[in-house]
């Protein structure tokens, strides 16, 4: 793969469009990120205020223009941001990278995280040619482990990474999606969002 990640990009499929963050997303970004589950399970500053939002968008742009990370707003049609999905920590030698995601509280349980993670994972595997994708998740974060499982990631036996956060300690397990899993898993990823969410209304 190239060591510089492509910018700008947009990925879409299954009712989701992932697009670059824009400066005029600031108010909606703050609305999304100033929320207890995000404070508990991600390294976001809390409270997440306008100042934090400005710094966040600035850092996102630096990460994108320097080609170090992929950081995309989750939208339905390219408009209002509903969450975020990221790819970072690329190891070009090992051909691996870490991914992360969050969805605003008002938009959860509609398949947005699973669809977005699957879109970015397929892109990472097929376009960036990465062979191992990892997620780091505290086992207490049941929503996130469900997203990982749904997208075909599996729990590794790697020792947990211990972190102290303002809202308590985290013990991050490593989940992975590896090339050796073959076409069946890729097929499953591509089909992830095809499953119905109707039962959640
Ligand atoms: C984790 C998070 C991104 C999930 O977003 P979402 O859009 O609601 O997830 P989806 O609708 O795509 O759900 C995917 C799967 O997770 C399950 N799930 C989602 N939220 C759940 C919850 N609170 N409890 C149990 N399962 C849950 C869904 O039922 C679905 O499972 P299925 O495949 O069995 O149908 C969201 O809760 C969030 O932003 N949390 C705070 C930030 C965070 O924890 N980020 C991850 C850090 S590792």
Describe this structure in words.
- This protein is α+β, with helices and mostly antiparallel strands.
- It has one domain: Gcn5-related N-acetyltransferase (GNAT) (Aminopeptidase, 3-Layer(aba) Sandwich), CATH 3.40.630.30.
- Helices cover 32% and strands 27% of the residues.
- The chain has 6 helices and 9 strands, in the order ββαααβββαβαβββα.
- The chain has helices at 26-33, 36-41, 50-65, 112-126, 142-150, 182-191; strands at residues 11-13, 16-20, 70-75, 83-91, 96-103, 132-137, 154-155, 161-165, 168-178.
- Strands 1, 2, 3, 4, 5, 6, 7, 8 and 9 form a 9-stranded mixed beta sheet that branches.
- The longest helix has 16 residues, at 50-65.
- The radius of gyration is 16 Å and the shape is globular.
- Mean pLDDT is 91; it is low at 196-201.
- Bound molecules: coenzyme A.
- This is N-acetyltransferase domain-containing protein.
- Residues 16-191 form the N-acetyltransferase domain.
Give the averaged pLDDT, no decimals.
91
Q: Helical stretch count? A: 6
Major β-sheet annotation: 9 strands, mixed
Distance between the termini: 41 Å
**What's the count of strands?**
9
CATH class group:
Alpha Beta
User: What is the helical fraction, as a range of percent?
Assistant: 25-40%
GO molecular function: protein N-terminal-serine acetyltransferase activity; protein-N-terminal-alanine acetyltransferase activity
Domain N-acetyltransferase: 16-191
Organism: Winogradskya consettensis
InterPro entries: Acyl_CoA_acyltransferase, GNAT_dom, Ribosomal_N-acetyltransferase
